[in-house]
Design a protein that fits this description.
This protein is of the alpha/beta class. It contains 15 helices and eleven strands. The structure holds glutamine (GLN).
Length: about 475
Amino acid sequence: MNIDTLSIASARKALDAKEYSARELAEAHLNAIEHTNPELNAYLEVFDDVRAQADHADEVLRRGEQKALTGIPLAMKDNILIQGKRVSAASKILENYVAPYDATVTKKLKAQHAIFLGRTNLDEFAMGSSTENSAFGRTKHPLDPSRIPGGSSGGSAAAVKGGLALGAFGSDTGGSVRQPASLCGLVGLKPTYGTISRYGLIAFGSSLDQIGPLTRTVEDARILYDATRGADPNDSTSVPDSFFDKRSHKKKIGVPRDLLVAGVDPDVLQLFEQQLKKLEEVGYELADVKLPSFTFGLAAYYIVNPAEASANLARFDGIRYGLSEDGGDITDVYFKTRGKGFGKEVRRRILIGTYVLSAGYVDAYYRKAEQLRDVMRAELATVLENVDAVAMPTSPTPAFKAGEKEDPLAMYAADIFTVPVNLTGAPGLSVPCGSVVRDSVNLPVGFQLVGAHGGEEMLFVIAEQVENTR
Ligand code: GLN
């Protein structure tokens, strides 16, 4: 077995055909992790019960009761709860916090007897685009250790690209599944808001957050998506199956060329255009579309996101969860715990969020940004009446160097093509479309497809065309 390139679908066939056991597959991954993870820092913890999980999966296989993910070794971003395991959100404030229950996603994966290898590194509380904001050290790009793997689900992406898991879950609030997938040459899906339960995902921006898969193939992304989606009584924003878009294929793709202006790497743009041509060659029609409000997506996102983050992170008060510092009175406990427990970017978001929600500024900032979201949603819906999906680059650049974007605004600009999608709630998928050479290394580039709410199937179909033509 070549675990570096093995897909979930192929591993399924091999496990079913008894070419190897779940135990052997898990051992191969543990060996690779032992060898590579000290350098990569993709995993913050490798679980001590992987072999036991694998033996259990082998028993299920022996009984012939296997499901799609039985015995498949996966990685979980360290902000998704697995009961009894630590879950830190890569923050000092939750360093030793143990999850008291399973996330719905975890429960669904356990029901299929998937194997959890460990918890993967992220930017603290998923705030960032490079995994450099982790309190536990940065994750390195598997193809060039001087570069970042993207973020915030950089640990998950590095694990799958580096041969340390067959697939992984991340969370995408503004691009954190799609952007690291793009930078690492993987498929990454940010599903429609509400299609995968957020129950048991540590909340960041609740109206933006979605859990999503990072995989080596489009087929694998579909497998992980199918295994984890569905309405959940524990998440009041989750949607029923009847919600899914069943429109027929028009074989037409919208390209918002007005958005592809300043700041996009010319090589990335060239690969994007080449991929569009290839889609044309296999029968897709290209249409110029206009999404003028998307120009303000980044600005609106960096108001809505900190606003929601500041409210969500108020619960980390030194009393209810994790770290607790002694203080003279309760205010002192808050100051000391939060001052010590939260990193710089988290404190920055809390400050911005508190400001834009304050009585004097809420109308000027937060409410304006929320109004813009309505306009964005309406514009996208109108465009999607005539096309199957909108295509954009996923990230304006290939993987950048560690330390290159110390200015937070430069880091935020990396999200220009991903955050608008979360503001609308629509699904977005990144699929590899080639690579560019930097310092003699081939660095992957992603092609992003944005669909109608509930239109994941359409994205999978088009992404498979990209996969077949690149
Ligand atoms: N990079 C974006 C941010 O920092 C998106 C993060 C995410 O999707 N979790 O907010």
